[in-house]
Design brief:
Elements: H1 7-32, H2 38-65
Length: about 70
Amino acid sequence: MNIQTHPDIWIARVIGILAIALGFVLGIEGLEQPESLWLPTALGLILTGLCAQGYAFYRTIIEKIQPEDTKDS
């Protein structure tokens, strides 16, 4: 699998990694300032990143188990 044939998988992986990383950074800031909106925002970013990683994992599994004769060109 390469990036030219399956860009949706790679885009989901990159967005997932970035969202999770940014969520953890904002979460640290949110723990230092509990009354701010940083903590709920961080939790939302982490959840978004996990959903994106789940989608990429699902698409990868589907791509691997799909027979060669039914794959799109």
